[in-house]
Amino acid sequence: MKRKLFLLAALVFVASFTVPVMMAAAQENVTITVAVVNNPDQRRLLQLSDTFMAEHPTIKLSFVMLPENELRDRVTTDVTTKAGSFDVVQIGTYETPIWGKNGWLASIDDLSAQYPDNVQKNYNVDDLIKGIRLGLSYDGKLYAAPFYGESSMLFYNKKMFAAAGLKMPAEPTWDQVREFARKLHNPAKKQYGIALRGLPGWGEVMAPLDTVINTFGGKWFDDNWQPQLTSPEFTDAVKFYVKLIQDYGVPGAANNGFSESLTMIAQ
Questions:
Q1: Model confidence over 209-222: pLDDT tens digits?
Q2: pTM of the entire structure?
């Protein structure tokens, strides 16, 4: 690759760590190609990029915005084959430590030491949430600049709950969520009980499904790294998730990921 790839993990701010490119741009025009997931948060980067380019007229930012599964496939192929199509990429905490170990990424810590006036004065690494920082590190070095952190949470429509005489408890169980979905489900009015991801992919269906598996007491591996995919807790969680979608979910859930589900809830 012409330069080492700069990673912006599931989570990214393009102006944060293009420092070496900025140094080169002081003498010549340069285009930085940025690959990001196509969702509302990242589309805000396009708006922010205008400000960045106005402040750095010799630097042009070119964005490639893709659905998450396609982004992960293209970026992984680009990095492993050393094609060098992208200068900055957005991926998640799964890839970051692995790619850092493989030497495919530029260490944020190394960049900070190399360009202290640009990085250390403008980016306070100590402000990062510890869990996110550790997830984006390998062997004590940070390999990604987080744009945001993600977690699983439950959203519900207060007006629909009130109309159905329902009240959401502070800490609902999944059985309660299923019962709420059952009472709200009314396909004849194009009203569906729950919107859950069904689109295959590590960052699609597996994100919320992992939350359900954890809640049911399941795990992928035990402490000796033996697979636990056939354990009662794991299989019960998967069966529950699938049946919940089949009984009270949005039709065609197998094609719905984060963006599709977000659109449906907004509508």
A1: 999 999 999 999 99
A2: 0.71
